[in-house]
Amino acid sequence: MKMMNSAEKTVPRELILAELPGVRAFLRKLTRGQEEDLLQDTMEKALRYQKALDPNRSVRGWLIKTAFRLYLDQRKKASMAPSLLGDRVHDIAQTHSGENDPGELDRLLSRLTEVERRVFVAFHGEELRLAEISNRLDLPEGTVKSHLHRARRKLAQRRASSEK
Q1: For residue range 20-50, what is the model confidence (pLDDT) as tens digits?
Q2: CATH number attached to the domain at 86-163
Q3: N or C, which end of the chain has less CB nearby within 10 Å?
Q4: Do residues 149 and 124 touch, judged by C-beta distance below 8 A?
Q5: Model pTM?
């Protein structure tokens, strides 16, 4: 019985690179066009751990799984930084409030209930779809829509009262 050395077990680099278009297509659908950084991280990881890949298993499957895990890690990091809501939420809140004071964002969001704030930030700040917010918060999609509507209405009322 012949023993395989590590060079014989290594998945060829060309095989990994050949899967690049399929992984890019997967990430494009997952991230709605923001796939390049994740694709680069996925391929870097694949090439770094190339010798650990099992040549008897699907390379594309491993790459897709790795890409998805990196995507989840990225989303988790983003959700753990609520103080970094981003310019998008600030712009939306400013539009609804008519205020330019950066501290006004915190005051505006503090007037919302916890669930309204989470839905508003997820929708406008993280640009998640209603279905994604529904899954994240374990709420029916119609309830998410109601909370988003109420949050927008409260911000609009705040704007109307400040213009008087």
Answers
A1: 999 999 888 888 777 888 999 999 998 888 8
A2: 1.10.10.10
A3: N
A4: no
A5: 0.46
